[in-house]
TrEMBL record:
Residues 57-77 are annotated as: Disordered. This is NHL repeat containing protein. It comes from the Eukaryota. The lineage of its organism: Eukaryota, Metazoa, Spiralia, Gnathifera, Rotifera. It comes from Adineta steineri. Transmembrane segments: none annotated.
Length: 402
């Protein structure tokens, strides 16, 4: 059976995966996932594919395959185990899914102006913080226009309950209600799905360093299990935690002034909450690194970049990182804005691989980025990048290596 015939057979019977061995023209159909589950793997005599992504595996960088042989004369069993590295790869040419492909900014429904954070709602629509248009746009994938769901469609800034000023951070709950980091107003607004105005849930609207104030709040993350909000308070060089319905926050990372010390943060623009380790993964912008800060700890540990604040463009250095996310395998993605690239780090690794953009080169070509601020993955591992200074969102398709 050829690999094409094997593929057709798998799709016909609804198999979750199939293994085509070209050396002997055999086809193995997989009816369900085993407890150890797999991901794309590179093999030399055929190809193994999934129709959908399997559940989270127990390891993020390798797949174990065991074979046992039994000798009847000795009644002994020997087991050999081989390890195959996963292969993650994306198309290096991006496709514009929101905004202008040539980088033009504007306030019309098909334009963006410095998009910052990307989130998917429960229907897989893309929410974009259209920062210098002072609005949040909802974009159905495949549509040429977005819809304003918070702020004014005209892009006019303001400080009233129905306006925003430089919104950057964005979080959604399970009902698609929004939490918006309204940076220019130093406040966090709660915007019920479908509402025309928001409600203040954190901050006072004025700049300050008290526990109920912000100095340019940036990224916001929500712990869905508790409703707790985590907010990067950039110019106060700290991450704040607000318990559900609390009017004042608690410093959980930084708060010791700007610097490269292990107890300090240095303009922490972006971060993500890692629930598996109860820690924050923080993009430390002016220290040119990404660090882990365990909730309750008094210092960080390095994940990527330099501990001394040195910037660079090599695979082990960063230059003004802004956004950071983790996938459910524990791999890390960093928007390395000053290098105009997205860096990918296998779980536990500090040596990055460029998966979007070209190091040190900005532009509007489909293979280039200009100061990307954030990224997000869809359910099929396609990568969406907020190509901020190109005023667009780019999609880089995920594909397998066989």
């Amino acid at each position: 059976m050829t690999c094409t015939e094997c593929t057709c057979a798998a799709l016909t019977v609804g198999a979750v995966g199939w293994n085509c061995v070209t050396s002997n023209n055999t086809c193995q159909l997989i009816s369900n996932y085993s407890a150890s589950d797999f991901h794309w793997a590179k093999i030399t005599n055929g190809s193994f594919r999934f129709t959908t992504f399997p559940p989270e595996p127990s390891t993020t960088t390798s797949m174990l395959t065991s074979t046992s042989t039994t000798s009847s004369s000795t009644s002994t069993t020997s087991t050999s185990t081989t390890t195959t590295a996963f292969t993650f790869q994306w198309n290096s040419t991006g496709n514009t899914v929101a905004g202008s492909a040539v980088g033009t900014s504007g306030t019309t429904a098909n334009q963006l102006s410095e998009p910052y954070i990307l989130k998917f709602d429960s229907s897989n629509a893309l929410y974009i913080s259209d920062s210098t248009n002072n609005r949040i746009q909802k974009w159905i994938i495949g549509s040429s226009n977005g819809t304003t769901v918070a702020g004014l469609a005209t892009g006019v800034p303001g400080s009233s309950s129905n306006t925003l000023k430089l919104p950057v951070g964005l979080a959604l709950d399970s009902l698609d209600n929004m939490y918006v980091s309204d940076k220019g107003n130093n406040r966090i607004m709660y915007w019920q799905s479908g509402a025309s105005s928001g409600t203040l849930v954190a901050g006072t609207g004025s700049t300050g360093n008290a526990n109920n104030q912000f100095n340019e709040p940036n990224v916001i993350e929500r712990d869905s299990s508790t409703g707790t909000l985590y907010i990067s308070d950039v110019n106060n060089h700290r991450i704040m935690r607000y318990l559900s319905n609390a009017s004042s926050g608690t410093v959980v990372a930084g708060g010791n002034g700007a610097g490269t010390g292990f107890t300090q943060l240095n303009y922490p623009y972006g971060f993500t909450f890692d629930s598996s380790t109860n820690s924050l993964i923080i993009a430390n912008y002016h220290s040119h690194n990404v660090v882990r800060w365990v909730i309750g700890a008094s210092n960080w540990t390095i994940l990527a970049g330099s501990t001394s604040g040195t910037s660079g463009s090599s695979s082990i250095l960063l230059n003004q990182p802004v956004g950071v996310i983790l996938d459910y395998y524990g791999n890390m993605y960093v928007a390395d804005s000053g290098n105009h690239r997205i860096q990918f780090y296998l779980a536990g690794q500090s040596n990055g691989t460029t998966i979007a953009g070209r190091t040190g080169l900005s532009g509007t070509l489909p293979t280039l980025l200009h100061t990307p601020y954030s990224m997000i993955l869809d359910s099929q591992f396609n990568l969406y990048v907020a190509d901020t200074y190109n005023n667009r969102v780019q999609k880089f398709a995920y594909y397998s290596i066989t």
